[in-house]
């Protein structure tokens, strides 16, 4: 009887360059879809998503939802992923800072004079960004440091 031993070695592998943009764009798309869903539910619940600034009525949806769900997330995650080529630790730092900023900016929603339904929906949209940031950036980090 003959036995064969198979030895495998695992070393550090890097996430292929294509997967980093996919992680960023996937995270942004997930946040956008979730926030548009929240906006739709808010609309059905009677939210107006309007506020007044002096004598001007400002409507923040759906354009504001799309813009504020994508641009800050896209910029922040892109910067973090680019820096991760030099320092992998930035991904966890970015997840924490991005999450804190997302939660801290709920204050702006609370003080903007939206109706209750709109305030709750817009605040939830800020909260949605936290798991998106953490999952996407942690996925990139694990792909870089997988053994």
Automatic annotation (TrEMBL):
InterPro entries: DUF6069 (IPR045713). It comes from the Bacteria. The chain crosses the membrane at residues 22-41, 61-83, 90-110, 116-137. Keywords: Membrane, Transmembrane, Transmembrane helix. Pfam families: DUF6069 (PF19545). It comes from Nocardia halotolerans. This is DUF6069 family protein. The keyword Transmembrane helix applies.
